[in-house]
Description:
The chain is an alpha/beta fold. The chain folds into 2 domains: 3-60 and 323-425, Aspartate Aminotransferase, domain 1, CATH 3.90.1150.10; 65-321, Aspartate Aminotransferase, domain 2. Helix content is 36%, strand content 17%. It contains 13 helices and 16 strands. It has helices at 3-15, 53-56, 65-77, 89-101, 115-132, 153-158, 182-191, 216-228, 281-285, 306-321, 324-337, 375-383, 407-425; strands at residues 32-36, 39-42, 47-50, 106-112, 140-144, 175-178, 196-201, 205-206, 212-213, 232-236, 260-263, 275-280, 348-354, 357-362, 388-389, 396-399. The strands form 4 sheets. Strands 4-12-11-10-7-5-6 form a 7-stranded mixed beta sheet, sandwiched between helices. Helix 4 runs parallel beside helix 10 (306-321), helix 11 (324-337) packs across helix 13 and helix 12 packs across helix 13. The chain starts with a helix and ends with a helix. 48% of the residues are buried.
Amino acid sequence: xxxxxxxxxxxxxxxxxxxxxxxxxxxxxxxxxxxxxxxxxxxxxxxxxxxxxxxxxxxxxxxxxxxxxxxxxxxxxxxxxxxxxxxxxxxxxxxxxxxxxxxxxxxxxxxxxxxxxxxxxxxxxxxxxxxxxxxxxxxxxxxxxxxxxxxxxxxxxxxxxxxxxxxxxxxxxxxxxxxxxxxxxxxxxxxxxxxxxxxxxxxxxxxxxxxxxxxxxxxxxxxxxxxxxxxxxxxxxxxxxxxxxxxxxxxxxxxxxxxxxxxxxxxxxxxxxxxxxxxxxxxxxxxxxxxxxxxxxxxxxxxxxxxxxxxxxxxxxxxxxxxxxxxxxxxxxxxxxxxxxxxxxxxxxxxxxxxxxxxxxxxxxxxxxxxxxxxxxxxxxxxxxxxxxxxxxxxxxxxxxxxxxxxxxxxxxxxxxxxxxxxxxx
Length: 426
């Protein structure tokens, strides 16, 4: 580590507390000073290929000129205004476009700040929707095993507490958890009729669970079950939205419309924090009243931030102009192709892909699985030694690169995944 890197790292260690980081293990913190396209530049001038889109956010590549221009222009005219009792062109334009491109039937947009808050909005709206309709018994939720929906309390409850939220279990509302198995879900809904407010799931790909994947047919069956049992369906597309699975939204592959759709991460191309929860008109109408106490009491200081909205609009334009979902799908295909010979090899449990998401699951010699697998730290150390930025999920290595990734860069990512896996397993 050079002096410039060392200085920045030491200053960081003195004042910063990083997310999902055990500082007691003295994990190396990478000093990043610049980014362009698919690449990150370190303080010593070396570069790393961002194969995970900086936690699944960077959609078109870092510093895309059209997004930067949109940010700059908007900052000059209107930096921010509260969204309670006020509006602005960017928020209206973005809501109009989101309702046009989202699955048919989602007509209202509630803005928030990030994926976790988008989920909080959906959970609160679902519960109060039933209360407004006089069905106050519908207070329970059904989610998938291994689910992750964010770190705020409602989102933690909807997710699987193990391993991230065990300490908070006494404070979380009760959620029924199930594998993505329509038969099991049907049994639960039949056993407890009239009690569930909603089923919440990550469509097609469960991200933090280790990029676990299930087919569109299962998603379609779950939608039918929700209809049959008069239960809302919440689709958390915070990670899967905006082309990551090969279509603009993962729900498209099952030809279904959820009742509530949560978006964030790629919404602004990864430049600024902005989230949106889209709902059906019937949900919005349940809150309409001459009684002020029946309003939806939720909000954030930076709700519908004009700069974020401007960048999101520019990102949506790029998605269409550059056929981003198709590009991401081709990127995923090439990376998968570079690893296909690993299938069935010792130590390799699975190689799977959905759109631009590729996951390589390894067999932990200790038998441990999941985020706290003993293989995880070895993978993490091996990832820091190369020129490709990877961040394993326990015993799962994965890539989810931006659409700016070139064929040569795809080959580099595949090579890095192969090298890291071999190093960790040796």
